[in-house]
Amino acid sequence: MAAPGAAAAAALVQYVVLRGDLGRPPRSWPLGAVVAQGCHAALAAAHAHRQHPDTRAYLELGGAMRTVVLEAPDEAALTALAETLKQHSIDHEVWTEQPENMATCLALRPYPKDQVHQYLKKFKLLK
After folding, report:
1. What is the distance between the alpha carbons of residues 53 and 57, in angstroms, rounded to a whole number?
2. Element (H, E) at 43
3. Is 1's pLDDT higher than 50?
4. Are 70 and 123 in contact (CB under 8 A)?
5. What's the mean per-residue pLDDT of the chain?
6. Contact, 70 vs 61, CB < 8 A?
7. pLDDT of 74-118, one tens digit each?
């Protein structure tokens, strides 16, 4: 039988929302550059909220961590999402690429899916 906290930890998800327009014309960023933005944001969120019990439990999962990568169509949609998350006190980090000073991605700290899904349900999986 699993430990009491195991089910709760298994339900934790880290959501990453990348701008889909970065990989399409006119920007046409290489796939690796787009993926790097997601990695930066995910690590920034995990680091900024490393003392939160959900983040600690998530990181303890190791290879069983669950991450969902979603697509925001453009910077305006990403910025609007960040504002919504801020208004609802949802911990997240926006990754801003320098020197362009352009928001490219955001990541939430790990959360139970049912606590944050309502804010993310309009975004599709990144393709």
Report:
1. 6
2. helix 31-48
3. no
4. yes
5. 93
6. no
7. 999 999 999 999 999 999 999 999 999 999 999 999 999 999 999
String of DSSP letters for 10-30: HTEEEEEEEEGGGGSTTT---
Q: Map tokens 């997601």 to a residue.
A: 38
Tokens of 115: 């606590």
pTM given for the model: 0.91
Q: Which two tokens stand for residue 106?
A: 């955001």
Q: Band the pLDDT of 9: cuts 50, 70, 90.
A: low
Measured from the Cβ of residue 39, the count of other Cβ atoms closer than 10 Å reads: 13
HSE-CB of 17 using CA atoms within 13 angstroms: 28
Residue type present at position 38? G
**Both tokens of residue 101?**
């000073």
Position 102: which residue type? M
- Of the candidates 19, 17, 15, the one whose C-alpha atom is nearest the C-alpha of residue 102 is 19
